[in-house]
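Tokens as discussed.
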């Protein structure tokens, strides 16, 4: 019953709430409530106590991301630091993409793309990264890099990625076949590309190729 007693005391004002829920939960609660200065003080104190605390650094980055006008680039740097400390966690990189969304324009899009590439190396289906990607300009160079990253996961590189860009996608995938990648996923994407542009004959032929390779 000790935990229940502590919570009752906290709710009654006899004990600070952060003593029961921990500094990170308290800081996040303050962040959600818009109490940025108080959240920042808690997190800066935590980082001073442990400069390698990736969670505290990530939360502090979120505070700066929400800070009016001046916090965006500070947030990017903090997320970069958190990503280096916790390299298997896609969240700091995802939050860097959010920095790009706040900044907007060509520079913002570049930051979003760079962040998404890092996220997809770790988790190709992380949160709403596909929806974020769909809002960006996709040049052939960008598509080539994204397909290369996603292919390492064995994912169908057309899922979400190549919508509305099938001409470029087909050229990129043809390059992959020429380079020796000749699996079912590549042929399935080529089939989809042909069908999207109305070439039913080529689409069905490539679909047969995908089925043949998938059955091996």
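Sequence:
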């Amino acid at each position: 019953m000790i935990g229940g007693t502590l919570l009752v005391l906290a709710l009654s004002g006899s004990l600070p709430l952060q003593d029961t829920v921990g500094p990170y939960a308290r800081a996040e609660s303050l962040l959600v409530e818009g109490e940025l200065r108080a959240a920042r003080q808690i997190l800066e104190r935590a980082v001073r106590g442990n400069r390698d605390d990736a969670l505290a650094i990530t939360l502090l980055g979120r505070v700066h991301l929400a800070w009016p006008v001046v916090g965006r680039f500070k947030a990017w740097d903090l997320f970069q630091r958190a990503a280096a400390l916790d390299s298997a966690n896609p969240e700091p990189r995802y939050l860097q993409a959010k920095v790009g969304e706040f900044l907007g324009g060509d520079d913002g899009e570049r930051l979003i793309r760079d962040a998404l590439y890092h996220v997809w190396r770790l988790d190709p289906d992380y949160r709403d990264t596909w929806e974020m990607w769909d809002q960006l300009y996709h040049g052939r160079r960008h598509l080539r890099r994204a397909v290369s990253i996603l292919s390492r996961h064995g994912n169908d590189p057309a899922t979400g990625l190549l919508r509305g860009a099938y001409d470029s996608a087909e050229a990129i995938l043809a390059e992959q076949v020429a380079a020796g990648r000749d699996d079912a996923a590549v042929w399935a994407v080529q089939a989809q590309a042909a069908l999207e542009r109305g070439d039913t004959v080529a689409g069905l032929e490539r679909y047969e190729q995908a089925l043949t390779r998938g059955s091996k």
